[in-house]
Amino acid sequence: MNIFFLGDTRGAYRTENIIKALFELEYKNVYINSFSNNKFFKNIANLLMIINSDVVFVGPIQHNNRLIRVAKFFNKKIITDFYMSFFDSQVNDYKQTEAGSKKANKLKRIDKYALENSEIVIFLNETEREYFCSVLDVDYSKLNTVIIPLCIDKKPKANLNYFHRKSEVLNLCWVGTFIPLQGLDKIIESLKIIVDEGFTTIHLTIWGNSLMRSEPYKEIIKNKGLDKYVTIINKWGAKEEWYTFIKENCDITLGIFGDSLKAKHVVANKVIDGIAFKTPTITGNSSGLCEFFNGEKNIFIVHNEPKDIAKKILEISEMDLKTLETRIENSYNIYEENFSYENFKKNMSSLFKILN
């Protein structure tokens, strides 16, 4: 089977693991779209690879590419990894586009075309399948869909210095982009509640992706008098440095706490990252998460309100090490069963058997 992979192969978790799995599964040929700066050469190269392929695999966040229509013209089988919706991200997450506007309608058409013209559509979980199809007015029962969860690389085990009594400071960590979906303002407010209650041996590190977008949060932190309790590091993409930092400095990982419908449906990368580092992980309630986790036995799931986040942080800070480690191991077992590369590769193998 000849496969043409359409997508940016550089620096993205899921994309890199798709490419890795395709090569390890030893399909006859795996072509990757050209990155040539010569537009003419690039178009010819991509056209020839599509013609010589049996399957066009549309990678994460790539279903706006015009080559999908070319593949459809040549009657190629199309697999689309529907990692996100352009319409939902612009209209509901970033709020940069008005619903009903010309641009919003165009984005919705792009999303719907990909869904309705693929032999197989991959979703990360059943909840996100239902959510995205609802947002885009698509009947998912008419689609051929497959669930392949997030694939998160293995991580070094965090030292958890506070819980091993090697540090008096409880270190909280949050990693992400500065968009409303994340609910970072609620995390900062929860820290204010904790400090005001007299628990001052605590620190929050925010590992972000934009100096400019972090500025409003710096202002919030300053206004709440939390300067000495918060550090913002904008080093997105510095993977090894991030790994080392979390291993040596993180006692509790914080997930997403936004109010949007999407926040209440998705499984966020940062949540599974925290579990892969073997840190206790707190996140807002999400129906997507509840497909895999039980908030009473493994991960810590709370209402997405500052007082509830604060209460859970304080509760975990007082847990005995044995109880905490049991919760961490329970979460890690679910990670290995559902979100590890080994499970991802097995799912990819099953995916292509459907086409044969």
TrEMBL record:
What residues does the Glycosyl transferase family domain cover? 172-332
Spell out the molecular function terms from Gene Ontology.
Answer: glycosyltransferase activity
Q: Name one GO biological process term.
A: lipopolysaccharide biosynthetic process
Query: Gene3D superfamilies from the entry?
Result: Glycogen Phosphorylase B
Which keywords accompany this UniProt record?
Transferase
The organism sits in which domain of life? Bacteria
Q: Which PANTHER family match?
A: GLYCOSYLTRANSFERASE WBBK-RELATED
Name the UniProt record assigns to this protein: Glycosyl transferase family 1 domain-containing protein
Species the sequence originates in: Enterococcus plantarum
